[in-house]
Amino acid sequence: MEPYERITRFLREVRRALNRVSLGEAALATFAILGIATLAALALAQTLGQGPGRWSWAVVGVGALASGIAVWRLWLRPRRRREADDELALWVESRVDGLESGLVTSVQTESLLAQRDPARPLGFSPELAHAATARTANKIVEIVPRALPERRRLKRLAGIAAGVAAVMGLLAVAAPGLYADGAPLLVAAPVAEEMGDGVRLVPVAMSQLELEIVPPEYTGIKPRKLRRSAGDFEALEGSEVRFVGTALYDAQEAFLTLESDPTTSFPLKVEADGTVRGAFRVGTSDRYQFVLTDKQRNTIREKAWRQVDARTDAAPEIQLLLPESDLEVKPDDRLTFFFEGSDDYGLDRVELVIEDDGGQELDRRVVRSPRGERLSRGDEEVAIARLGLEPGDSADLHFEAFDLNTLSGPGVGKSQSRRVTLYSPEAEHDRLLEDLDRIIDQMIDVLADRLENPVEGKETLRLANYVAAGQGINAATLSLIADMTTLINGLSTDALTSDELRTAVREVRDRQQDIADQEGAHLRRTVLGNATAQDDVMVTLLFEANQEGAGELEAGVLRLHRLLDEARKDSVLDAGRELLETQNEIMELLKQLKDQKDPKALEAAMKKLKRLQEKLSKLQHELSKLRERAPYENQNPSQRPSDKQKSMADMKSTMDQIQKLLEEGKVDEAMKLLEELNKNTQELMSALQNDLESGGAMSATARQKAQKFTSDLDELADGQRGLKGETGELDRQIDERQARELKEQQEQALEAAREQAKALQEQLDGIDGKPLHPSDREALEQLKKDAAELGKDLDRGQVGEAAERAQKLGEGAASLKSEVGESEARELDQKRLDGLRDGMEKLGDGQEKAEELAETLKGMMPKPGEGLQPGEEGEAKRLGQRQNELSEKLSELEKDVAELDKEMPGIEQEMKEPLQQAGEAMGQAKSELEGKRPGEAKGHQQEALEHLEKAQQNMQQRMQQKGGKGPEDQAGINDPEAKVEIPDEDPYGAPRNFREEVLKAMKERAPERYKDAIQRFYEELIK
Length: 1023
What we know:
This protein is α+β, with helices and mostly antiparallel strands. The protein has 25 helices and 21 strands.
């Protein structure tokens, strides 16, 4: 770095240091002057009083002028002097010894050298000047620029400013009136008294006002005081405001008036020394003023109003954190919902609310009682099985938070809602069939495009046009393949879809994929190729690929149409069976309502009736789709609905009548109508089976017997299903009652059990999992979680669940102890060996605690069949009788299957095992019900129901195997020997809507030159 540059930089740093010190001095002096002027102005304003006090601004002006002078003299003027480098160099030489004017000389010689005129001599040697400058530059290296400025004045000014700040702070604490009263006087106008209607108006009638604001008790907030207040304040609604002030006039009486009610005056207490006391409660935002009455009975009223801002207690806020979206659930799912609630003054409780589709509450329970906490987080588990949903039903869940407001009532905050929908295999199956229907339409569109492809002309000169059309068709085919792949994925998990349909869709998709790949390869070669000699070959290849694609599409459309029809026929029959099942369930509920007058039975019956109406709509929807494919007028006259059958509209009308009768309490009449509806539904189902099922190798007699047996078997299974539901409901009621009684009678025992559970959890939590094998560590974590759940079971009073969990905990601890023992036998490291032994010891203690707690809880539980009330014993006896009736019906079915075996050889052997096992399970259930043990009976009933459903499945498979395969196997839809009247239109031809759509597409889209060829193709397609 050049010497001149070092000197210039040095002077710049010195100038910056001096400017900082000068600025600090000016700022401190300004603060001290303005602080003193402010205090003097406030004191003078209080001395002069209202009006003249405004002259105190002159003191503030003098202070501002003095501050300006200080800034000029301490900062601005010195700063200007230091701008010249030679002046600054002289100042530095005066502060630093040994420079010997070298610094000033260097600055001046640098200037002369910069302005040097080659024609004129300098008067000194540049080399000598440069050497002197270098010597000076070396001297200033050791000089610190920040150390040169004088700081004694800065320190004095800092002390003065600190003293002024301290005085201002002390006055704010010791004499707050100097600020509170003096500041308003600086701007207050002179006191002017006015007379109006015999009332003396004054600006202020009350001074030295002190307020104490006492919030409502439920907030838990301490009272706050406002000293020397002007009277304006903000407070929570319901707060009590107590005030003390001094009347400025000789008052005998004092009143408080509100702007919202000026005609009413509230008396205040006036003491002998002029002190006025009073209190009022904050309602809504308002304004108030004081009114005095002197000894001459003159009224003195304040001109100004004092403001009251009432703050409303806001409702709590609550958010449903998880899950973040609606869910589709299964019956055995247990969902956990997480929430976060807050309130400005504390929460009282948080409730979980569950509503059905119609907004009716299914459940409401308190999930958290924060006891005044302002923020509360938590979760709640919901068992889907307890909601009573049926497949396809939905329920909306949300949280509600309540605050502690006891004045206007608790505020309520509502969270977002989440909808849970019970998974319905039927609904999923219907959706997939709709997707298949759309894909078939998509296949028809692609087929029409292939038939209209200009490549059919085989003109070589139009190869470019062929390629463009082929690329569009290939893209449409690939889109079709993608949609079919999505459908295949859905069908793969659909239990109601037949294997034949899955296979057909996959095979059609694969053939289209092969054709698209081949056609795509041809198109790419055509686009990239330039040889004219290959045009004929490429046209031929594109023509053959298009022909193959059209043929495969034609076969695929017809194949998938046939399978879609069969699937929809199955859906119709399933919907009819659901109708019968639901009707039987409603009948059982009505019997229960009639016998026990149970309002819950009525509620359940109304819900089932709504479900019945939905299933009727579903049946109508499915039938409408089939009528689009094969309307009644295109079938044999014998297959049209008979006069004895109730139409769909009549059935709906009957359901509406049943609902009205139930609402009026006419149960007997409703049951009669329900029996009639059930009979008509059975006739409708019989007709549907005759219309939709093919006869095949079965004779009319065999089919009639098989249908009767199937109907009786379905009725028996429905009866067993309903009985199982009633038994389960009885068992649930008994468990809930006994749990309540147990909680009331043995609360002390429950508390002891909770202490045992807590000790068990602490024992397990004290086990160090680090020395354990990873799998053993996972088992230990599961034991800890089960111990925590055990405590929750006891808190809820669920002794039975707690006993089972404690038993499992003991077994788990024993098993884990054994596993740890094996690890201990192999361990060589002493530290890990000690950890394993300690864990084994604690697991042993945990096992003993768990087993002891399990025995304690089992001793608290009533034994099955004990402690039943007379009504419960009677209900168990009635259910046992019904179980016996179902057993007798099963015996009759076993006889019927022997007769059916004559017409359907082998059916008896297939049905023997499930029917026999169902009978054994029914007998065990009957014994348990007679022994007043509905809980054990329910398990046997479930076993019997599973065997009956197995028998239903066997019978359905046999019926399908015996079904006809096509029109060549029979003359009519029902009886193959019956005489059939052939209608004008072929009943086995392509569907009318399908034919009309194809013809419409042909007429609208076919080019004129291909009209004859496409006409012939569609004539073959729709035959």
